[in-house]
Amino acid sequence: MGVGDKAGGYPDFMNGKDMDIGIVMSRFNREISEAILASCKAALGELGVLEDHCNLETVPGALEIPVMLDAMARIGQFDALIAIGSVIRGETYHFELVCNESARGISEIALTYGIPVANAVLTTENRKQAEARTCDKGRDAAYVAIEMASRLKVYKELAE
Q1: Topology adopted by domain 30-159
Q2: Is residue 123 within 8 Å of 102, Cβ to Cβ?
Q3: Is 53 annotated in the active site?
Q4: CA distance 53 to 71
Q5: 54-59 and 21-26 beta bridge pairing
Q6: pTM of the prediction?
Q7: What confidence tens digit (pLDDT) does each residue in 66-99 have?
Q8: Among the options 94, 127, 128, 156, which is catalytic?
Q9: In sequence order, what are the residues at sequence separation of 6 or more whose Cβ sits closer than 8 angstroms to the Cβ of residue 44?
């Protein structure tokens, strides 16, 4: 069992009180992104994160998300970051490029800076699929951000 795990495998610390969360949202497919954001912010509130402890930045599209995440991670102010966006398949290979490169960049930020980055960038075949997943994706991102920030805090304290 890991540090902080209960016997059932669930963390015993899902409290975002006093946490600072950075959110980067793509404006492409804006209605979908805003629905993910609303669900995410509601879940963060339920987990104790104060609204004024959430910093939202918007960027044009999914490929720009890692650049803004990098800027936010560099300042060291945030306990966790959340990437929000929606990429819907079109008729060209561009879909695969955007999906793969944005996901790679998001993961790279987490590994480079040792900060949790919840990836809530939907990649779907069509708008109907995206709309059906907005609530779950936003909520899940909030839970991932808080759990991973809590877990990493424990390990950082052990390392000191």
Answers
A1: Rossmann fold (3.40.50)
A2: no
A3: no
A4: 17
A5: parallel
A6: 0.92
A7: 999 999 999 999 999 999 999 999 888 789 999 9
A8: 94
A9: 16, 21, 54, 142, 145, 146
3-state secondary structure of 58: strand
| pLDDT exceeds cutoff 70 at 1 | no
Nearest one of 62, 8, 18 to 44, comparing CA atoms: 18
Distance from C-alpha of 47 to C-alpha of 160, rounded to nearest angstrom: 27
Cα–Cα distance for residue pair 159/138, rounded to 1 Å: 32
Q: Which residues, other chains included, contact 32 with Cβ-Cβ below 8 Å and sequence gap of 6+?
A: 86, 88, 122, 127, 130, 131, 134
Render pLDDT for 112-156 as a digit per residue (tens, 0 to 9): 999 999 999 999 999 999 999 999 999 999 999 999 999 998 888
What would the DSSP string read from start to end of 120-143? EEEEESSHHHHHHHHHHHHHHHHH
Higher confidence at residue 122 or residue 2? 122
